[in-house]
Design brief:
disordered C terminus, 17 helices, alpha+beta, 12 strands, about 45% helix, seven-stranded antiparallel sheet
């Protein structure tokens, strides 16, 4: 965390051209009233268990739209747009539902009424629903309805050790992204009903709660937070330490979850297991090391066996001013930022620094646009704006290198837009959300969210769409339904036998191999 910065050793142009990025975008299905849709996952979208591009996240009412890993920003964005087009067109065939445009949820029913994702009768499908039941018991179903965008990113020739260096620097500088792209400064009062919070009413307390300088309440203390998980001391200093700390959380019994039990007295499942984490995906974080798994393989085993393949950035809010939740300029800024994190010196982290980073994250999530806001940087207190400016200035040669690689000026333009926001906090997405809520929607969060959602739907539905595209997506949906049936037909034994095998600590792997590409 030394402010002095050495010149970058830039990767060759052919490596920079090999950057791949992919997007996973979550969004609640909502009714024209702005209430959560309680209908099943639309049949025209295929099987949520096996479809490569359209699934559900926590809830049956929470879509997740997925692109492949693409070399071009526009290519990735175009694929995301096409998945949206098919999804919205399929939904329009059966009713007026749309996707909620904001990260913080729409008007929600009672906690137990929020439907869990359903994935059919196979053992693997049932396990997904049982896992979600466990999440509901552990953290409440409301928290799980928060939505965001995950940005998956890789560069050819990067070792596991180098990816962990990227992750450490990302965590140090993540406040920059929260400030630039946070878009959840307000929420519906129903979300915090019965909970302690420090939010203020925005006009009528029944219409919206907010914090005046917040950037991303989703990434603050009311978002993806857990007292139980705060006891997990995850090290990001390398694959072995990370894997071992996660292994412990996946195998260590947690008293409150032991008391809940795996099954209730009637025999229905409460959760997959009683450890601190049921499975790897339960661990919350702003960024994760990832490796593609083989069928039935645990993610931790895949990491241990074959090393880090890419990183998953998890702190991006949905942009309610973009029809598909993100735009090309934001994606290019993410590419530049991640390259900066990869190529900068990255000293080991420590428990003290990890605590400091958590403090900084909460400060920026809840007060990021506050004039004069100071963050902790080692033994120093530094201005958020000065520190952000420093990071973005260091990004200039990286943006220039990507421009040269792709024969464009778009990366430098994306960086210039980000630098402008540092001196113009009123133009950040979080400030624009509050301004539009006040000016157009009587300070109502739900009205703002509904209007942006309807606008996004109409924008996507108005785009050109061919019969060939329709046939392609219909075939994918049909294939996914058949794939689910095949999985169900191939199952043997009982679900409990399957669960015990899947949750056996032996399948997590043990000895970490030092893996380099």
């Amino acid at each position: 965390m030394n402010p002095t910065h050495k010149p970058f050793a830039l990767p060759a142009a052919e490596r920079l051209a090999g950057i791949r990025r992919g997007i996973e975008k979550e969004g609640l299905r909502v009714l024209p009233s702005g209430h959560l849709a309680l209908t099943p996952h639309p049949a025209a979208l295929g099987s949520a268990l096996t479809h490569p591009h359209i699934t559900t996240d926590y809830s049956e009412s929470q879509l997740e739209l997925i692109t492949g890993a693409r070399k071009g920003v526009q290519e990735c964005l175009q694929e995301l747009q096409q998945v949206h087009q098919y999804t919205f067109r399929s939904m329009a065939q059966v009713g007026e539902e749309t996707m909620w445009a904001s990260s913080m949820p729409c008007y929600l029913p009672t906690d137990e009424t929020i439907p869990l994702g359903r994935y059919g009768s196979s053992h693997s499908g049932r396990s997904k629903s049982v896992y979600r039941m466990g999440l509901g018991h552990r953290y409440g179903r409301r928290m799980q309805t928060i939505s965001g965008i995950h940005y998956n990113w890789s560069l050819p020739g990067v070792s596991s050790e180098e990816y962990f260096a990227l992750i450490r620097n990302f965590r140090r500088n993540a406040f920059v992204l929260l400030y630039l792209f946070g878009a959840s400064p307000a929420l519906s009062p129903c979300f915090v009903e019965g909970r302690d919070h420090q939010l203020q009413p925005l006009g009528d307390a029944k219409k919206a709660l907010y914090l005046p300088y917040a950037t991303s309440l989703r990434m603050g203390r009311l978002g993806y937070q857990s007292d139980a998980q705060s006891s997990i001391n995850v090290s990001y200093n390398g694959l072995e330490g990370y894997a071992n700390s996660l292994h412990k959380a996946l195998t260590q019994p947690y008293p409150a979850y032991e008391q809940l039990g795996i099954r209730n007295p009637g025999g229905d499942y409460n959760q997959l297991g009683t450890s601190l984490l049921q499975i790897e995906n339960e661990f919350y974080g702003t960024i994760r090391p990832k490796r593609t798994t083989q069928r039935g393989e645990r993610p931790l085993h895949a990491l241990r066996e074959r090393g880090v393949e890419y990183v998953e950035v998890r702190l991006m809010d949905l942009d309610p001013f973009e029809p598909v939740g993100i735009n090309a300029s934001t994606m290019r800024m993410l590419d530049v930022f991640l390259l900066h994190c990869l190529l900068s010196d990255s000293p080991p982290d420590s428990p003290q620094e990890i605590e400091q980073l958590k403090h900084n994250q909460h400060m920026v999530a809840e007060r990021g646009r506050e004039p004069g806001l100071q963050l902790q940087r080692g033994a120093q207190s530094v201005s958020l704006l000065d520190w952000a400016n420093e990071v973005l200035t260091q990004c200039a040669p990286l943006a220039a290198a990507l421009d040269a690689t792709h024969q464009t000026s778009s990366y430098s333009e994306a960086l210039a837009q980000a630098q402008a926001l540092v001196v113009q906090p009123h133009n950040t997405p979080s400030a624009r959300v509050l301004e539009q809520m006040h000016r157009l929607h009587g300070n109502s969060f739900e009205q703002f969210g509904l209007m942006q959602s309807m606008w996004a739907r109409e924008s996507v539905l108005s785009l050109p769409w061919t019969a060939q595209q329709q046939a392609h997506f219909e075939q994918m949906a049909h294939t996914s339904v058949q794939a689910q049936k095949d999985i169900e037909a191939a199952d043997t034994g009982t679900f409990e036998e399957w669960r015990q095998r899947y949750m056996d600590p032996a399948v997590l792997g043990c000895c970490v191999q030092v893996y380099k590409k």
